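[09:14] KT: can someone run the structure on this one? pasting the chain below
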Amino acid sequence: NLDDMEINNFDFSLMKEELNKIEIYNFDSNLDKHIDGGASMDTFETVQESRTYVLVNENKQFDKMLIDIKKHSVISIDLETTSLDSFSAKIVGMSLSVKENHGYYIPFMSPGELFPTDPKTILSKLSDMFESSKYRFIGQNLKYDLLILKRYNVDINNVYFDTYIAESLISPERTRYKLDNLAVEYLGYKMQPIEDLIGENKKEQILMSEVPVEKICFYACEDADVVLKIYNKQKSILEDMSLDNIFYNIEMPLINVLIEMEYNGLFVDVDMINSLSNDLKNKLEKISETIYSHSGKEFNINSPKQLSEVLFDELQLKQIKKRSTASNVLHVLKKYHPIAEELLEFRHLNKLVNTYLDTLPTFINDQTKRIHTTFNQAIVSTGRLSSNKPNFQNIPIKTDIGKEIRRAFIPQSENHYIYSFDYSQIELRILTHFTNESELLKAFNNEEDIHLRTASLVFGVSEDEVDFQKRQIAKTINYSILYGAGPFRISQELKIPIKDASEIIKNYFNSYPKIKNYIDSTVEFGEKHGFVKTLNGRKRKVSNIYSSNKNVVEAEKRAMINMPIQGTASELIKIAMINIDKIFKEKKMDSKMILQIHDELLFEVPRSEIKMVQEIVTSEMENAIDFDVPIKVDSNYGNSWFEAH
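[09:31] RB: done, structure tokens below
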């Protein structure tokens, strides 16, 4: 009855903690009233009474601020800007904090009274502090702020701690690391939302430069202050979790390298991109006509509803997954009707046009005439870098058209080349290091064909008897095992019966027993400790291993097996990047590192430095980490990314 449904003993504080764990931070106002014994989220602290935030808008205050700040070694910094685009944003103001509950805000622009000194003079007065190794600078997503400062010809020497990067190591299973959320988790404190300043309605929002300076002062100082407080908690957590090595020696030094790469950017031949786009659009028109001839009518090919009607109602094709028109369904339908092949080709070309060819020119900076992508350190749980605006990782490399796109990336200056350096079979080599598998060690040490060797062992024939098909099967197995693939996955990839796939896997593990031991011991370690880790200590938490859903458990095991290998590969190339950047600066070279994509580094190199770059980059990439197996790098240069790859 209704009385039995009444809840009297609900623990709202515990509920808030549990919701925070799954990244739910904002609550209904009625619910807020019950949290923490009736206290609203907005009354965690009476912030105006407990903080001293100073508006620095005159020279005497500025000098006094400098004296205070220079008494401290750790300085929290945050910029308020006109845009989220680091290449167009202007500085609205800068906040600094050196002790908890205190902060300074220096306005660069505001709708009212401005600081009596221009921005360049303000920054020049701070330059000694920025350039000194004595002061350690901390922040949240520092790379954004530092890239903007670089545009103002300001470089910070000692980039010490980023709360955003730290949290990505502490809680790698999360997808977002916003400062507002970290404040709730670490401090039990709800920060002032930016909407209080610029407005709730997106269509009517104002720029930060239009917000009264008194309002920005609290908001900006709060950012720097909260970062300092979170830093004071995170630094001990990193040590307790043994994450301090990878954080201080890899992730933090990498920030300045990524800033250089983003600042350098890539030059693109726009005419070539537009020409290729037009060619593909003509091909798409012809493919569309062929699809219409098969269907007997014109329809919207990009509409799943209309396409399913054509395939399953009018052409009466077999429904593989109900009325799904997904690519894997179309691959099956190729056996039954030629329209499926045309649809797959249409989708492939259409994606290239819409995702790359028509969008790449929109990313070209008006001033530099180059594309300045953004590299992300905290997106992929294995530690691999990703990029966006645009995402270079997703440009297809195996298709002819994907290769043609690479032809458009060329040097901007005469007498320069694009130089590509790519790790050879890096994940297999790291697997060999982890497993100490004698047959693999022997093959790599003798520079043998690893796939030929595997085929010989798996099929029980001499290497001379291994044909192309057997080698391809061995190649597939070598790489699929890295991702924890089982008989079903292998059978799909090789298009063979599951029974045959099981037999091949059995022979593989008989040939390489230490790989089977590595897989079993890695899963066992993850189950026991709740995480798996890379060579340098990056951790991936194990969360789904005890799920009741078998598919979820198997997916978790595959991730556990691959993460230490792929994560170590990411550490290898990051260390190499840090070392290469350092040597280039020491030697005052004109060569520029411009892109990292998977296991490849791309450079723009003057002809006079070709030999020097070849020696430096190869040596640093091959020796960044001391493995028990030799690391090899393939390299080439040319007049475009296509020629270099």
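[09:33] KT: thanks! Residues 36-48 have pLDDT under 50 and may be disordered.
[09:34] RB: yep, looked fine to me
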